[in-house]
Design a protein that fits this description.
The complex is a heterodimer of chains A (about 325) and B (about 525).
Chain A lengths: L1 H29 L3 H4 L6 H10 L6 H13 L13 H36 L4 H15 L2 H15 L12 E3 L2 E3 L4 H34 L2 H8 L4 H30 L2 H6 L5 H10 L3 H29 L10
Antiparallel strand pairs in A: 1-2
Chain B lengths: L1 H18 L16 E6 L14 H7 L7 E3 L9 E3 L2 E7 L4 E6 L13 H13 L6 H4 L2 E8 L2 E6 L6 H5 L7 H5 L3 H6 L9 E7 L3 E6 L12 E6 L3 H9 L5 E3 L6 H5 L4 E16 L25 H9 L3 H8 L4 E3 L22 H10 L7 E7 L6 H13 L4 E7 L1 H9 L5 E7 L3 H8 L20 H12 L3 H17 L3 E14 L2 E2 L14 E2 L1
Parallel strand pairs in B: 1-10, 14-15, 14-16
Antiparallel strand pairs in B: 2-3, 4-5, 5-7, 6-7, 8-9, 9-10, 11-17, 12-16, 12-17, 13-17, 18-19
The chains are: A mainly alpha (about 325), B alpha+beta (about 525).
């Protein structure tokens, strides 16, 4: 078990090193951030001064080694644009993104599993067919379009919900969250629903096919023959087996939702990390881009580890870290 | 395939927005005089330190906190006349090298301390000391600052320099006392925004909003709003939705495609003014072989056709500026003949926009030895100016009619600028805004000379000693009439040479609730404290 975790941690360091090198070279290839950051009215001397101040006049490999040296001490550099430590900038926005992603995954799981079960148990009913048709739409409609439609219908036409932004926040254990106030919840509903849509469809389809498969298995028939109630059969025996693939997918998708909530965050002006990433790419703010990707890689590693642990709990046949 | 789908969906959205019914209820009682004003900015302020940079992202939420020594007169038609702000009066002596400014008395900072000349000197010096500061261009020429008495100070330049009043318009005056106890982080976060302006800092939630509260002790009368909130909303449709749903009171930089929708809405109104931003084309005039220039078959040309005045003129005549302004820009553009718009200092009114004459253009090309035309890459941005990529496409189509095959290469501005600076473009579109004609010429067509600050953006490589000499004289002149005459002469020379080809001046558009009023500005700034409740 422990060796498994250590092994994962070592792997992730390798990934981080390769990733930072790629990002460094990539951003360097796009161009000099100074050209975007300086006031266009500046003269050449002003630009040279600013370039030297950020160390951008040095060769690329030298810049990279300076970065690695600082990174080893936990300092991922100062943002060119914001002039504050990049890591602080990202951590400041993390709660907003985590809140949005968690809300979206909750919607996906809490709605997706019951709907998927229903569609799996009664595949030929009208309700079952409607659920499946809905999930196809959820898969195929692009997020940005659905987001705009949600704003148009619920905010502009009906005037029920705010168009964008995050509501007032209250501190929960020192972390600012918005779901504890009514106004905050109102702001959260549309972006969370928009972000949830794809995963909701995914969970529905996975649960449905899992249910269809499980329902015909011997152990279910045996449970029926034993005279167990339908609720117990579905709620315990079927559901537990259905959950294994769902947990994998939800785990992997949770990482993606955090890392790539960019579209939803931009449309709803949600002050999260994704919006920061886009802004940083636009001004070639390399320290923030590198720090962001480092954090995302670390998040993915952590989530995958949690998924592995959840597996062994759900399916006792899975054993971690043993090479027998 | 994906982009085609995206386009289709976007078209669908536009249709839906157009047919959408008005929302049933809207907070009509808002905004009211003395209430809250909710404005929106598209980009997050990278810092709230007003001495670090001069972008809209910072200036819009920053400006209501501060005053400057001098400022642009918002009621002036040209939008480029300087009037006093914290300085009551100023005199220029010593042949244009000494500026003596008298400060307003009894002005108090948000922390209660009184404004004196010491705060002014401190603020000017701070612009040069801030890490990564970009306001040095406005203050570096001031070589000496003398405090005569608490309300009088003298600023000196090494050589006569007429731009001092314009430059002072960009320097916020901060409290020296308050700054002494604040670190750079406090300036970045807004905590140290202690100015003399009509609003004081309340809160900055990064990525979300900046909140300002009224300064009840403001020296210039009671501000119109109790509270001003700047929401940060990066996408155009979301800003429009916010205005339509009533959440936002006003928006700026309205996309031209949405103008019709807003004008049909009885609850909203627009304000427009020709902006100082001019869109133009660079033409490579310094290299024998410039990148992207070939004959029709793709073979490199023996010489650079853009160095021939007749070719440059032909390209200009082949462009139908009226069509671009009316159709492509939905009327939100004015065909250009100068590098600055008509109301700006130094505009030469005798220059007229090039008449559209494809027949003559073809004859000129034949005369210059290109009866079959040639091929060229037209570089442009696709996220910087209003409809920039579409304009480049339209220009390319118009050039095709006279036999010049232009391939449009559109890039995001962050990839575009570095390439332009490196000289990778022979034919490129760009935009520029200036307080005056001589400033625009200095950056765009003067022979490059880093030490004088000349030609920082002269991507054409145009070089005319007569233009340079006229500009030198204009900057050294403190007589406004004389300076304007010199600037106009330089403009005429450069435009007759087709140093660059001007296309149009953008029209800046604001949209707001009926209950609001805003005097549109040439410089495109939106100052929240200038919104009026009607």
């Amino acid at each position: 078990m422990l060796s498994h975790i250590v092994h994962r941690a070592l792997q992730s360091f390798g990934v981080l090193a390769v990733m930072s090198l790629l990002v460094f070279a990539g951003v360097y290839a796009v161009g000099n951030p100074m050209d975007i950051l300086v006031n266009p009215q500046s003269d050449q001397n002003e630009i040279a001064r600013a370039t030297a101040a950020l160390g951008l006049d040095r060769p690329l490999f030298e810049q990279y080694f300076i970065f690695i040296g600082h990174a080893a001490t936990g300092d991922l550099g100062k943002s060119f644009a914001f002039n504050v430590p990049a890591i602080g900038l990202i951590l400041e926005r993390m709660p907003a993104t985590l809140e949005l992603a968690t809300a979206a995954m909750l919607i996906a799981v809490l709605l997706g599993i019951p709907l998927g079960l229903w569609a799996g148990l009664k595949p030929r009913s009208a309700a079952g067919r409607t659920i499946m048709a809905g999930s196809v739409l959820g898969f195929s409609l692009p997020t940005f379009w659905v987001g705009l439609m949600l704003i148009l219908v619920f905010s502009v036409w009906l005037g029920w919900l705010p168009t964008s932004g995050r509501g007032p926040t209250v501190n929960l254990l020192g972390i600012p969250v918005s779901f504890l106030t009514a106004e905050g919840l109102r702001h959260l509903v549309l972006p969370a629903a928009n972000l949830a849509l794809f995963n909701l469809s995914l969970v529905i389809r996975l649960t449905r096919s899992g249910t269809r498969e499980a329902i015909g298995q011997d152990y279910v028939r045996f449970a029926r023959a034993k005279g167990l109630t339908e609720t117990r059969i579905v709620g315990v025996h079927v559901l537990r087996n259905v959950l294994v693939p769902v947990v994998t997918v939800v785990g992997v998708e949770f990482g993606s939702v955090i890392a790539f909530a960019v579209v939803t965050e931009s449309i709803f002006a949600w002050p999260g990390m994704g919006k920061l990433l886009i802004d940083s790419i636009n001004v070639l703010d390399r320290p923030v881009i590198v720090a962001y990707l480092c954090i995302v890689v670390a998040l993915f590693v952590a989530i995958n580890l949690l998924v592995d642990l959840a597996y062994s709990w759900l399916d006792p046949r899975v054993r971690l870290g043993e090479t027998r | 395939m994906r982009t085609r789908l995206a386009l289709l969906l976007q078209a669908l959205i536009i249709v839906l927005v157009l047919v959408a019914p008005a929302p049933p209820a809207l907070a009509q009682d808002k905004p009211r005089h003395g209430g809250e004003l909710v404005f929106v900015v598209p980009t997050e302020p990278p810092t709230l330190d007003g001495h670090r940079e001069g972008t809209f992202g910072l200036l819009h939420p920053g400006a209501p906190h501060y005053n400057t020594l001098l400022r642009m007169d918002p009621t002036d038609v040209s939008g480029t006349r300087v009037i006093g702000d914290l300085a009551e009066s100023w005199t220029i002596t010593d042949g244009g090298r000494t500026y003596t400014l008298k400060l307003r008395r009894g002005v108090r900072f948000h922390d209660g301390s009184e404004l004196t000349a010491e705060d002014v000197v401190f603020s000017i010096e701070r612009t040069l000391k801030v890490p990564n500061g970009q306001l040095g261009i406005f203050t570096r020429r001031i070589v000496a600052k003398e405090i005569v008495d608490p309300y009088t100070l003298r600023l000196k330049t090494a050589t006569p320099y007429a731009m001092v009043p314009y430059d002072l318009n960009s320097v916020f005056i901060v409290s020296r006392k308050a700054a002494a106890s604040s670190g750079p982080e406090d300036f970045d976060s807004g905590k140290a925004m202690i100015g003399t302006g009509p609003f004081r800092f309340a809160r900055f939630a990064r990525g979300d909003r900046v909140e300002l509260a009224r300064n009840d002790g403001y020296w210039g009368g009671k501000p119109a709003w109790e509270k001003v909130t700047f929401r940060i909303v990066p996408t155009d449709p979301a800003r429009l939705a916010g205005l339509l749903s009533g959440e936002l009171d006003a928006i700026e930089q309205v996309p031209t495609a949405d103008l019709a929708r807003i004008r049909r809405d009885a609850r909203l109104q627009t304000a427009q003014k020709v902006s100082w931003r001019t869109i133009f084309l660079y033409l490579d005039q310094y290299r024998d072989r410039a990148p992207g220039l070939t004959d029709q078959a793709g073979r490199p040309l023996a010489r650079n056709p853009l160095r021939d005045l007749r070719v440059r003129r032909a390209l200009s005549e082949a462009i139908n500026r009226q069509a671009i302004a009316e159709r492509l820009m939905d009327g939100a553009a004015l065909p250009a003949s100068n590098l600055v718009s008509p109301s700006v200092f130094g505009y030469a009114p005798d220059l007229k926009p090039e008449p559209y004459d494809p027949g003559h253009a073809k004859r000129l090309l034949a005369e210059a030895g290109y009866p079959d035309g040639f091929a060229v890459t037209l570089s442009a941005t696709n996220n910087r100016y209003v409809n920039d990529e579409q304009i480049a496409q339209a220009v390319a189509q118009m050039l095709a009619r006279v036999g010049v095959r232009a391939r449009v290469e559109a890039l995001p501005v962050n990839a575009y600028l570095p390439k332009g600076r490196k000289g990778e473009f022979a034919f490129a579109m760009f935009g520029w805004g200036s307080f005056s004609g001589d400033l625009a010429l200095r950056a765009l067509v003067a022979t490059a000379d880093p030490d004088k600050g000349f030609g920082a953006f002269n991507w054409s490589g145009y070089s005319n000693p007569r233009v340079d000499a006229l500009l030198e004289r204009a900057f050294a002149s403190t007589d406004e009439k004389q300076r304007e005459a010199l600037a106009r002469d330089a403009m005429r020379l450069a435009m007759r040479d087709y140093a660059v080809i001007p296309l149009h001046h953008q029209v800046a558009t604001w949209a707001m609730k009926k209950a609001l009023g805003y005097a549109p500005r040439t410089d495109e700034f939106t100052f929240a404290h200038h919104f009026r409740a009607q």
